[in-house]
Amino acid sequence: MERLPGLLAFYEVIVGNMLLAADIGNTQTVLGLYAQGTLLHLWRMATNKTHTADELRVKLLALLAADATDASQVDGFVLASVVPRLTASWVEAARGLFGCEALNVNARTAALLFKTDYHDPEEIGADRIADAVAAVSLYGAPVVVVDFGTATNIEVIDRRGVFVGGVIAPGMETSAFALFSHAARLSAIDLIDPHTAIGGNTAQAVQAGIVYGEVERVDGLVRRIFAQLGYEPPVIATGGLAPAVARLSTTIGTINPELTLEGLRLVFEAQAPERH
């Protein structure tokens, strides 16, 4: 009971001062609700590229209600979207539900925290920017981020703290889907560690090829990055498929599932420092 006053005081502070961060990917959308820099709730939902603003509002209301949060408590919204046709719907949904204008993260809006030598910064995906911002803030520079999603992205931040580029490759599930859809005799299977490099049956053979193939591809690319840089930065993994691959990797040292959301929060707070 002695801790109750402190807890009540905390909630008095956060009511009406919450931030919703949305990482809108091609396959999944990840939402994080923050108060005073603390992640209170994390939700994942399938990305539906046909959703209207009204449909998104209904889904958001249901998620908030499920965790006893009222929409009136949210007064900030930041998003990273790699689905252009959904971006406007999310912006409109936030305006109607929270009464605030969304901050759409890109190289320009993140400029206070994101430095790059990229030839055209506007080309850089918002998720890549958020990953880089969070990685530098949490782990320092240099640092490498591997984001396992629909695509497997590798982001490279050098000793100067500058995003110098990276790698974009098909994600593990994307590769698996291509295989299953083009090979009539192969059925979809769970992408888990088969514990054998020599598959004793078709399922193990496919798992070895896809799972171990992804591990070796990432480790090989990271080693090439090390060689080009001339030094070996720490490597951070994030994204929904990170746990399946990172624990088998010899180059990845840390898994941070909320890295992208954290980057979105940091970009938002850099533009609204009073929220600290």
List the domain count as a whole number: 2
The residue-averaged pLDDT reads 90
User: What's the helix-strand series?
Assistant: HEEEHEHEEHEEEHHEHEH
Number of strands: 11
What is the structural class? alpha/beta
Corresponding CATH superfamily of the largest domain: ATPase, nucleotide binding domain
Largest sheet: 6 strands, mixed
* Oligomeric state as shown: single chain
Q: What does the overall shape look like?
A: globular
Helix segment count? 8
Q: What is the name of the CATH class of the largest domain?
A: Alpha Beta
List segments where confidence is low: pLDDT < 50 over at least 5 consecutive residues: 1-14
Would you tell me which CATH topology of the largest domain applies?
A: Nucleotidyltransferase, domain 5
CATH architecture call of the largest domain:
2-Layer Sandwich
Helix content: 40-55%
Question: Distance between the terminal alpha carbons, to the nearest Å?
Answer: 28 Å
The portion of residues forming beta strands comes to 15-25%
